[in-house]
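Changelog-adjacent note: as of this version, every example in the card shows the full chain rather than a window. The one below runs 89 residues end to end.
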Amino acid sequence: MYTRSAILLSIGLALGACSESLSNSQGSASLPPVPEQVVALAAPNQDITTARLRPEDNCYWYMHSGPVETTLLPLRTARGNPICIQPAA
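Full-length structure tokens:
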């Protein structure tokens, strides 16, 4: 029983060490400002100061600081829809 728990704990720690760090090492001061239209659409309880537009999906993401880790999450409207822009043609 203890051996199985130790193995599972070791695997969890090993996988956690391999995960990519999503923290913003440059600080939020280096991020471009979020447009007022996006701020107006965003639901409350999201950190707009850390929001940024990701070119991979043309959506806004923000850093959520939870009790255990800081995670990059999509910026959402009050209805739960992600806030994205259409790429310029």
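Structural remarks: The longest helix spans residues 2-18.
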